[in-house]
Amino acid sequence: MAIERWRPRQGFTKQEEMLLRRLLRTRKLFAFLRDQRHELFDDGFQAELESMYRGTGAGASPVPPALLAMSTLLQCYHGVSDAEAVELTVVDLRWQMVLDRIGSADAAFAQDTLREFRERLIRTGMDRRLLERTVEFARRTKAFDWKKVPKDLRVAIDSSPLEGAGRVEDTVNLLAHAARKVVMCAADLLNWPIEKVATAAGIPLLLQSSVKKALDLEWSDPDAKAQAVDTLARQLDSLEAWLREKLSEEMKKPPLKEHVDTLAQIRTQDLEPDPSGGGKTRIHQGVAAERRVSIEDADMRHGRKSKTKLFNGYKRHIALDLDTDLIVAGAITPANRPEEEAAPLLKADIDEMQRRIGELHIDRGYIASTVVDAVIADGGEVICKPWVPRNGKLFTKADFKINMRDMTITCPAGEVERIDLGADVEFDARTCARCALRPQCTTAAPDAGRSVTIADNERLQHRLRKLIATPRGRRRLRERVPVEHSLAHVGRRQSRRARYRGTRKNLFDLRRTAAVQNLETIDRRLAGATNKNLRRAA
Ligand code: SF4
After folding, report:
1. Is 43 within 8 Å of 51 (Cβ atoms)?
2. For the purposes of burial, counting CB atoms within 10 Å of the CB of 457, is it exposed (0-12), middle (13-18) or buried (19 or more)?
């Protein structure tokens, strides 16, 4: 079956002209997409979208992929579900106009078609191309003065929290939730009622709607709580023994394996043998680094907005081209992962665009990334606030003069030592012992001198310290501010809470959101350029 190409009309009907006039103030992107749809989805890009389907056309959607891609963007712009998107192709004139379906009484596609298209975008990585396409598209417009835009990218990176879509539960509820999934799956496989499985497997706690209701105890009493956890653990043991006896083969393959593995993961991370003995089990003391917090979304993790504020889910990261305000890459990482892990993901997408990073503007969270070394090795520049050295009321590293050319360090009393990258330097103990400044410098033992840590990347730190010391340097540090604004817009559009479960689906959503934001930027810039020309002509 040949894949149908989308060939929307180019000229405007009277009804469309009336609609476009109404879209001058609000929801302007509908008008922009109607006007530019041929350019955005030209033959070349439509062919790429069609390549997501096998050469034979088998499995191809009856709806042109470009129309589905446009609908995917509209869905993000409008912030609606798949079901609503289907309805809007019938009841909303703006959707109908952009999709070239004005007057159609039928939906443009089925809900499953849109979902299947999204999954195909994700499987083939074409969601990255969709974002990249908006950057390519911008280059064909007069939205920017391209002669003035540097060849190499000046990129700024930033991140914000994205609350996960899965329900976060405490240990008891997580275990019960995971066990209930196992029991339901076993009941399906055996074609038994769930109650019969729970009874036969020796886990009657699942017979109630809530395991806490079934345990019926005073949760503020630590002894009662410990007893409840032990009771639940024993019933989980019983369930596992019953599964091994009754469904040993099914336990090794999906779908039961997946549920059994989840239950085992929660048990391992949240429970441990009670050291008081008696074969008892208690809740794990402390939090496992990779603790799973939700049954429905396996990728969500605990994260921190600040020292005191916690959140559960993900961090979204964007890379913004500072010369065009276009987002060139997006990344999603679990909330517990450090920022530096996202930078290689963003750079991989920029590499795919065959663009070089000339300047990388980051905050300190990304400084330990391998991308920093790669950019410097490639002749690029890294702009970041330097570390703030702390040492209580004593002299900090900033009070010492480091000379990277001579590889020496001079203390406040004028003593000089040689330095090596990645090694601590210690001043002569006898000199420090005699020094009048010692009370302000060190609390080291009398037979030891003051030591200062010299980092592996001391050259970079040294350059950044010099940068912040000058007005011009501070101005350059402020150049990354647009990425904060852009990220705030992305956050408002994508929402504080994730639409999907799992890292990959949320990455799709971020890339799609960034694509819509880029299109708005292009529209705004084009409108600005037109107004400027009109003013010049007047
Ligand atoms: S205590 Fe040692 S390192 Fe500190 S100022 Fe005196 S001589 Fe220098």
Report:
1. no
2. middle
Residues 6+ apart with CB under 8 A from 528: none
In a 3-state reduction of DSSP, which class is residue 512?
Answer: helix
Q: Is the pLDDT of residue 279 over 60?
A: yes
Alpha-carbon distance 228 to 216, whole Å?
9
Ramachandran angles phi, psi of 214, nearest 5°: -65, -35
Predicted confidence at residue 287, as pLDDT, reads 78
User: Could you read off the pLDDT of 320-364 as tens digits, one per residue?
Assistant: 999 999 999 999 999 999 999 999 999 999 999 999 999 999 999
DSSP code, position 384: -
Asked if the peptide bond before residue 254 counts as cis, ω within 30 degrees of 0, the response is no
Q: In this model, does residue 483 exceed pLDDT 60? A: yes
Tokens 């993961």 locate to: 265
Reading the block at residue 220, the tokens are 């503020």
Ligand 1 site, residue 486, Cβ cutoff 6 A? no
Q: Which of 408, 450, 451 for a ligand 1 pocket mutation test, highest count of atoms within 8 Å of Cβ?
A: 450
3-state secondary structure of 156: strand
400 closest CA partner among 366, 374, 425: 425
Q: Which atom of ligand 1 is nearest to the CA of 395?
A: 4
Dihedral, CA of residue 306, residue 307, residue 309 and residue 314, to nearest 10: 60
> Per-residue pLDDT averaged across 395-420, rounded?
95
Q: Which of 391, 426, 432 to mutate to test the pocket of ligand 1 (most atoms within 8 A of CB)?
A: 432
Q: How far apart are CA 298 and CA 269, in angstroms?
A: 13
Strands (E), 229-325: 271-273, 281-283, 301-304, 310-321
Burial of 442 (0-12, 13-18, 19+ CB in 10 A): buried
Nearest-atom index, ligand 1, CA of 438: 1
Distance CA 56, CA 274 (A): 61
Q: Is 425 in the pocket of ligand 1 (CB under 6 A)?
A: no
CA 415 / ligand 1 centre spacing (Å)? 7
Which residues contact residue 472 at a Cβ distance below 8 angstroms, ignoring those fewer than 6 apart? none
Residue 530 has pLDDT above 70, yes or no: no
Work out whether strand 408-410 and strand 416-418 pair parallel, antiparallel, or are unpaired: antiparallel
